[in-house]
Write a structure and sequence with these properties.
- A hairpin with a 2-residue loop joins strand 21 and strand 22.
- A 4-stranded antiparallel sheet has the order 4-3-6-8, with no helix packed on it.
- It is built from 7 helices and 26 strands.
- By secondary structure, it is α+β, with helices and mostly antiparallel strands.
- It starts with 7 loop residues before the first strand and ends in a 7-residue tail after the last strand.
- The protein folds into 4 domains: 98 residues, Serine Threonine Protein Phosphatase 5, Tetratricopeptide repeat (Alpha Horseshoe); 142 residues, Sandwich (Immunoglobulin-like), CATH 2.60.40; 68 residues, Immunoglobulin-like; 99 residues.
- The longest helix has 53 residues.
- The radius of gyration is 37 Å and the shape is elongated.
- The N terminus is likely disordered.
- Helix 3 runs antiparallel to helix 4 and helix 4 runs antiparallel to helix 5.
């Protein structure tokens, strides 16, 4: 696997490109930084679909190469070189050419010859035009089918090896119009057979059946129980029969070989019980799974979808860390929620302080009345007040002053708290998604938007 080397800082985002494309681009960069190459590929593809960019192609090609997907890497890197004319960066172009050669050495090519030459060909269920030249393929077994109206469909399994060229020649015999069956299965590594004849690994293969009539399809993978699916093909109508696999866990599968999957959110505050978790397209029952590869998809309101292909070892539990990235809208809502909470807290404290100030005011009114009566009585007396009486008047005056100061202080505190509460409440209104910073550090094998 290619190893990213060095670090670089992404440049300032240009004016071109939509905000959604930039968001997906930066999500891809962050996914690379944390080593989640599957998610990075999805985000870079989304960014390029929204706004085609040489930078996105460059990052996507590097990520495919690092993820061990040489076929996709060569496809993207060739597109980069084709669109980079004249060269905008000779050094980078040389780097891309070197990486392209390294990935081309990991794949093979297939040349198909058909008789008659105007027949239609498909490789692994994907239409292929032989006149376009050799087809790049991953090493392994590949299903080549050929069809033509008025001829009997035929197929051939071809073994392609890395760094070499394979060839297949298919000769069709005249027959009734063939029918077509599209077989699909969300479970990875499923083997398909038609009329007890192995057709290779699916999902998503478009099969040309040799003749109209009833055919038996079977999807098989260790750990699953399957039954044959009968399909009545009507070749004359040209209709395509869609057949989906129906696999159930095999209760007789050895217990010692059963695998289990444990999904652990990296953020402890993330509650996966509220998420829609699907394994191989079906709702996850948190039961055992057959060993091998399984596709896990998680969707949770307020977060970007998460997808990962996990490989379960026989007889053990595989712990997979789930990293859900909150959307800008969800982050804004959480900030607003926290502000509302603090608004309520400070508002309650302000009201309590205001209530205390009012209570002290009325209590102090009684103290003031007592002091005022005592003062008037002393002033109207024939004799001067005694030392004790004078001291009592002074004490009463000091008490009134203390209560006045406390009342004023509580009033000031209440005003400050209520003002703060009002500001926080106003700021808790739904806010627009903030513009994100695009100064994320990325490996030198990635470029900025």
């Amino acid at each position: 696997m290619l190893v990213f080397a060095g670090l670089a800082v992404s440049a300032r985002v240009g004016a071109a490109g939509s905000s959604s494309a930039r968001e997906y681009f930066e999500l891809g960069v962050r996914a690379v930084n944390r080593g989640d190459l599957s998610a990075a590929v999805v985000h870079f593809e989304q960014a390029y679909a929204l706004t085609p960019s040489q930078r996105t192609l460059y990052n996507l090609g590097q990520t495919y190469a690092a993820a061990g997907r040489p076929l996709d890497a060569t496809r993207v890197l060739r597109r980069y070189l084709a669109e980079d004319a004249p060269p905008s960066d000779a050094e980078r172009r040389k780097e891309v050419e070197t990486l392209l050669q390294a990935n081309e050495a990991l794949i093979g090519t297939l040349t198909v010859a058909l008789e008659p030459s105007d027949a239609s060909a498909m490789v692994d269920g994907v239409p292929y035009e032989p006149s376009t030249g050799p087809l790049s393929l991953l090493p392994g077994q590949h299903l080549v089918t050929a069809t033509r109206e008025g001829f009997r469909a035929t197929f051939s399994m071809v073994n392609v090896t890395a760094g070499s060229a394979a060839a297949a020649q298919l000769v069709l015999e005249s027959a009734a119009p063939p029918g077509h069956v599209r077989a699909s299965c969300p479970v990875p590594e499923v083997q398909l057979s038609v009329d007890d004849q192995a057709m290779g690994m699916v999902p998503g293969v478009l099969l040309s059946v040799c003749a109209s009539g009833e055919h038996s399809l079977r999807f098989e993978r260790p750990g699953y129980r399957s039954s044959p699916i009968l399909v009545n093909v009507q070749g004359a109508t040209g209709a395509i029969e869609n057949v989906a696999c129906r696999l159930e866990l095999d209760p007789e599968f050895p217990t010692a070989q059963r695998s289990r999957l444990e999904l652990v959110p990296r953020d402890p505050s993330t509650n996966l019980k509220q998420a829609d978790v699907r394994v191989d397209g079906a709702s996850w029952q948190r039961d055992w799974l057959p060993p091998g590869k399984h596709q896990v998809d998680i969707t949770l309101a307020g977060f970007h979808p998460w997808r990962q292909l996990v490989d379960l070892a026989p007889g053990s539990t595989t712990v997979t860390s789930v990293v859900l990235e909150a959307t800008a809208t969800h982050q804004a809502a959480e900030r607003a929620k926290r502000r509302r909470t603090w608004a309520y807290v400070t508002g309650g404290a302000g009201l309590a302080a205001a209530g205390s100030a009012i209570a002290l005011y009325f209590v102090n009114q009684g103290h003031y009345s007592d002091w005022r009566r005592a003062q008037l009585a002393a002033a109207g007396a024939d004799e001067h007040p005694t030392v004790a009486e004078a001291a009592e008047l002074g004490h009463q005056a000091a008490t009134v002053e203390r209560y006045d100061n406390a009342t004023i202080g509580l009033g000031v505190v209440a005003g400050a708290l209520l003002t703060t509460s009002t500001v926080l409440f106003l700021l808790s209104a739904p806010e627009a998604a903030e513009k994100k910073s695009y100064a994320t550090r990325v490996p030198t094998s990635l470029v900025s938007w």
